[in-house]
Design goal:
By secondary structure, the chain is of the alpha+beta class. The protein has 3 helices and 12 strands; from the N terminus they run H-E-E-H-E-E-E-E-E-H-E-E-E-E-E.
Length: 180
């Protein structure tokens, strides 16, 4: 007898009742890693600070950097990027597409960050996606092109880059995220 194929499909309603830290991607739950390491937190803060400084000094009044908040894409997809930059008004919920997302990659999230989330962010139209590898001190940066696909900009360690957003530009010095 052929086994019946059954697959659970969860929604935001379920997600809000769960204990612990989770992400929900197309109805499938993903457990978050244990609490982020000190290095993870340090790098995340340095990225956010640089983006905030760029916003303040380059006329990006409508933009805001947030860390570790739920990005509600749909009723069955809620993710928690490490750092994101939005150039649209935000209240308490992030339910609009960010301009930039950085994910700090760990051994337990590498596959999800490099494949599942990359595809999700591409489909949602996130302009820039940065995969941060603290142990290698490298950031793989991707830019969404007109065809709707991500194109790798480069692997950054100590270089500088200028993010070209819809309303402004933000300079970024990758060497600063590795400093203590």
């Amino acid at each position: 007898m052929e086994a019946l194929h059954y697959e659970e499909h969860y929604t935001k309603k379920d997600y809000l009742r769960w204990e612990g830290e989770w992400e929900l991607i197309e109805g499938h739950p993903y457990a978050m890693s244990p609490a982020p390491s000190v290095t993870h937190q340090r790098v995340s803060l340095k990225i956010a600070m640089q983006l905030e400084n760029g916003i303040a000094s380059h006329g990006c009044e409508d933009c805001e950097t947030v860390q570790d908040v739920d990005y509600e894409i749909s009723d069955d997809t809620i993710v928690r990027p490490d750092v994101l930059l939005l150039c649209k008004p935000v209240d308490e919920r992030v339910d609009r597409t960010p301009e930039i997302i950085f994910e700090i990659v760990s051994q337990s999230t590498v596959r999800r960050d490099e494949t599942v989330k990359m595809e999700l962010y591409r489909r949602e139209g996130v302009g820039y996606y940065g995969l941060v590898y603290p142990k290698r001190r490298t950031v793989k940066l991707y830019r969404l092109c007109e065809s709707g696909n991500y194109v790798k900009v480069d692997d950054f360690r100590d270089e500088k880059y200028i993010f070209s957003l819809s309303r402004c530009t933000i300079p970024f010095d990758f060497s600063k995220i590795w400093r203590r």
